[in-house]
Task: structure prediction
Amino acid sequence: MRTNRNRAARGAGFTLIEVMVVVIILGILAATIIPQFGQTVQNAKVTRAKGDIQTLENALERYYLNMSRYPSSEEGLRVLVEAPQGEAAREWSGPYVKQLPPDPWGNPYAYRAPGTKGLNRPYDLWSRGADGADGGEGEAMDLSSWTEEKKQQG
Result:
């Protein structure tokens, strides 16, 4: 009778080998799934940056309609939120955006007027990507209004 009770108690648990097999299977699943989530986060950041650039371009167009000019490089994008100094403040009908968002990597969007990269554009507007520096590839790739133009025309 005692041996039957011991056998029942031993058969109720898992052996070390069974536990190790389950841990290995979970490790393999995690190794294949987790990198896909990392790419999803990167894709979401790129999509957000493209949306922000489009929103800022729309605000720049509204600014142009009111002021008959685009902001200078010195004024930058801040004139979309705050009135410029001097006589130009009378024509300003902003704010054109509630606030200037940083890009998804925490850096400010870059603006230059007159533009040097865009096709027939009076300004350049871009995010420097994950590395915060001009140029780069992969996650460090710059996202800009002029690269989107080239894709649409090409």
Notes: The first helix runs from residue 2 to 11. The helical segments are 2-11, 16-67, 88-91, 145-153. Residues 18 and 24 are 10 Å apart (CA to CA).
